[in-house]
Design goal:
- It holds the Pfam family MRM3-like_sub_bind.
- This is RNA methyltransferase.
- Keywords: Methyltransferase, Transferase.
- Belongs to the class IV-like SAM-binding methyltransferase superfamily. RNA methyltransferase TrmH family.
- By secondary structure, this protein is an alpha/beta fold.
- It folds into two domains: 122 residues, 60s Ribosomal Protein L30, Chain: A, CATH 3.30.1330.30; 157 residues, Alpha/beta knot, CATH 3.40.1280.10.
- Helices cover 34% and strands 21% of the residues.
- Helix 1 runs parallel beside helix 6, helix 7 runs parallel beside helix 8 and helix 7 packs parallel to helix 11.
- It is elongated.
- Bound molecules: S-adenosylmethionine.
- The site of S-adenosylmethionine has 15 residues, from helix 11.
Length: 291
C-alpha cells in the first residue's frame, strides 16, 4: 500500500463533486501529516494553526451542520472498506466541501486520538471564537461567564449544559483552559459548535461589563442572596461562576450586581463548578423552559 498516495475524490451519491478536497491513504503514524495532527494536542500548535481535533462521526457531522470549516477528515480505512454507509456519505460530504480526507490505518487513528479503540472518524476543524464586543443579550436571555476555569472536563460539561438550556454564550475570563483542547471538546459532546465562546482578559471583561445593561449574577460561597431570588425573566442575565479552587476573585465579585448562594446540606464545602453552573443555568432558564 502506498503511504499518503493522492487519489482523486470519490463521487458523492448524486455524482457531483464541487470544490473537491483530496483523499490520501496513510498507514504509518510516523507520516508527517499525522505528526502535525498529533501536535494539535498541544495548545501552542492549536494557537499557531487555529485548528483543533474533534472525535467521532456524530461530532464531525454536528460541526459540518453548524457550518464550521472542516479542514481534514480522518477516517478508518477498515470501516470504509466494510461499507459503513454513513461514513461513506460523510467522506463524500467532506470532499465536496473542500476538506482533505485521510483514509487511515487503526494505528494512525490510535496515534491521533492517543487511546486504544479510537473512533472511526476524526475531524480537524478551524476554531471559531466570538469577539466579546459582538456579544449582545436580549431581555430574558442568559449567558455564562467563567472566572479562570481550569478543568477541561468542567468547561466541556458547562458548554454542553449551556447548550441544553439555550444559553446564548460563554465568556472565558482571565487564564482559562483552552475550549478547543481534546478533553474539553470530548466533554462538550458537540456543543462546542452550538455555544458561542468569547475570551477576555480581566480588564477587557470589566470594560465590556460597564456597557452591559443586563444583570450580572455572581455565585459565591459568601453570597447572601438565595440563587432562586433574582428575577431572571425581565433583564438579560450573565451568570458569573468562580474558579474551582479560589472562587470568584474579589475584583470579579465586585463587578456583580448580586452574589447568590445555592443552599447546601451535609459536609461538602461547595459544589463542583460544573454542577453549580448546571443548577444556576436551569434556574435562570426555568421560565423559558417551562419548568
Ligand atoms: N473554595 C472555593 C470558594 O470558596 O469559592 C470553592 C469554589 S467552587 C468549587 C467553584 C465555583 O462553583 C464557585 O466559585 C461558585 O461559582 C460555584 N459554587 C459552588 N458551590 C456553590 C454554592 N453552594 N453556591 C454558589 N455557588 C457555588
Amino acid at each position: 500500500m502506498t503511504d499518503a498516495a493522492d487519489r482523486p475524490p470519490r463521487r458523492a451519491a448524486d455524482g457531483s463533486i464541487s470544490a473537491p478536497g483530496r483523499i490520501k491513504e496513510i498507514a504509518s503514524p510516523a507520516n508527517p501529516i499525522v505528526k502535525d495532527i498529533r501536535a494539535l494536542a498541544q495548545k501552542r500548535h492549536r494557537d499557531e494553526t487555529g485548528l483543533f481535533i474533534v472525535e467521532g462521526l456524530k461530532l464531525v457531522l454536528d460541526g459540518l451542520d453548524a457550518g464550521w470549516e472542516l479542514k481534514t477528515l480522518v477516517v478508518a480505512k477498515a470501516a470504509l472498506e466494510a461499507g459503513t454507509e454513513v461514513l461513506t456519505r460523510a467522506v463524500a460530504r467532506a470532499v465536496a466541501s473542500g476538506s482533505d480526507v485521510i483514509e487511515a490505518s487503526a494505528k494512525v487513528l490510535e496515534a491521533i486520538a492517543r487511546r486504544d479503540n479510537p473512533q472511526a472518524a476524526i475531524g480537524i476543524f478551524r476554531r471559531q471564537l466570538t469577539p466579546l464586543a459582538r456579544l449582545a443579550l436580549a431581555p430574558g436571555e442568559v449567558a455564562v461567564a467563567l472566572d479562570r476555569v481550569r478543568d477541561p472536563g468542567n468547561l466541556g460539561t458547562i458548554l454542553r449544559t449551556a447548550d441544553a438550556v439555550g444559553a446564548k454564550a460563554a465568556i472565558l475570563v482571565g487564564d482559562c483552559v483552552d475550549p478547543f483542547s481534546l478533553e474539553t471538546v470530548r466533554a462538550t459532546m458537540g456543543s462546542i459548535f452550538a455555544v458561542p465562546v468569547a475570551r477576555a482578559r480581566e480588564a477587557e471583561f470589566l470594560a465590556w461589563r460597564k456597557g452591559f445593561s443586563g444583570k450580572v449574577v455572581g455565585t459565591h460561597m459568601a453570597g447572601t442572596v438565595d440563587y432562586r431570588a433574582p428575577d431572571y425573566g425581565s433583564a438579560a442575565t450573565l451568570l458569573f461562576m468562580g474558579n474551582e479552587q479560589a472562587g470568584l476573585s474579589a475584583e470579579m465579585a465586585g463587578a456583580c450586581d448580586v452574589l447568590v448562594r445555592i443552599p447546601q446540606a451535609g459536609r461538602a464545602d461547595s459544589l463542583n463548578l460544573a454542577v453549580a453552573t448546571g443548577v444556576m443555568l436551569f434556574e435562570a432558564r426555568r421560565g423559558s423552559l417551562g419548568l
